[in-house]
Specification:
This protein is mainly α. Helices cover 84% and strands 0% of the residues. Keywords: Membrane, Transmembrane, Transmembrane helix.
Length: 45
């Protein structure tokens, strides 16, 4: 892990990592939710 010159750089990197992680988690939740919903609809019919 390389050191950054200014604290703003590391803060931006940390923020970017958090955003990417949050997006990935959100996408997984939405994907599993829609998958479960469509599966429920198929089983119901």
């Amino acid at each position: 892990m390389k050191k950054f010159g200014s604290p703003t750089d590391s803060l931006a990197t940390l923020f970017l990592t958090a955003v990417m992680f949050f997006t990935k988690v959100l996408f997984s939740v939405i994907l599993s939710f829609t998958g479960a919903t469509s599966l429920g609809c198929i089983l119901k019919s």
